[in-house]
Design brief:
single chain; about 220 residues; alpha/beta; Rossmann fold; DNA polymerase, domain 1; 2 domains; 10 helices
Length: about 220
């Protein structure tokens, strides 16, 4: 299977990854001296860097000030999340392990495209026992714009595995921003309505391939063909 399949994490592969939102709040206080929550905005589908910027600007900080300390903020988030990782659990959505196993056995290249900072993304996948499947990726620590993460994952696949078929890149995600990033970044979006958005909203964003869940492996594989 000469295909590159990229997956979002939260709302697509797993749910219930507690600790991530708290990591933002702790870093906001530690680095910027601001009491703030990501739920002051709608963070669904945003990269972590974008969430940092949007939340703190909502609190009255200017973008230049936020960016001047954003690397320190991300380090604080990572340190906190890693410190609580041993105590965390996640819920893996039905069908996910089976799909990843099948794709791996058919020699597809599997990767992550997520707004999560890479160490946090990898920690979540370690908790879920799925990290070994994802050999390339684009993460929220790499760029603010989500479409750039898609491009990075494709570039990694080319460099590491000589992948050269732009017609066979797919991005599986649960938000309109996943769909938009796929279209801008050079991938075919597959919407999955396991998060906060329904099939209609994913279709409106531009997804022509949409699933209610990832439970039906054959249905998912058919979309790749």
């Amino acid at each position: 299977m000469n295909k590159l399949i990229l997956f979002d994490i939260d709302g697509t592969l797993i749910s219930g990854a507690h600790g991530h939102a708290e990591a933002f709040a702790i870093a906001f206080k530690e680095v910027y001296g601001v009491d703030a929550s990501i739920y002051m905005i709608n963070p669904n589908g945003m990269t972590d860097q974008q969430i940092i910027i949007e939340t703190l600007m909502k609190c009255g900080l200017d973008k230049e000030t936020v960016l001047s300390k954003i690397n320190e903020c991300m380090r604080s988030m990572i340190d906190y999340f890693k410190s609580i990782q041993p105590k965390l659990n996640v819920k893996i959505f039905p069908g996910v392990p089976e799909i990843l196993y099948k794709l791996d056995k058919e020699d597809a290249i599997i990767g992550l495209v997520t707004g999560n900072l890479e160490p946090i993304a990898r920690a979540k996948m370690e908790i879920a026992g799925l990290n070994e499947y994802f050999v390339v990726g684009g993460f929220g620590s790499d760029a603010i714009d989500r479409s750039e993460l898609v491009k990075k994952a494709i570039k990694q696949a080319k460099e590491k595995f000589n992948f050269d078929s732009s017609e066979d890149v797919f991005l599986v995600g649960d938000t309109p921003l996943d769909v938009s990033a796929a279209l801008k970044g050079g991938a075919k979006p597959i919407g999955v309505a396991t998060g906060s958005f329904d099939k209609g909203e994913l279709a409106d964003a531009g997804a022509s391939r949409i699933l209610a869940t990832l439970e039906n492996i054959d249905e998912f594989i058919d979309l790749l063909d």
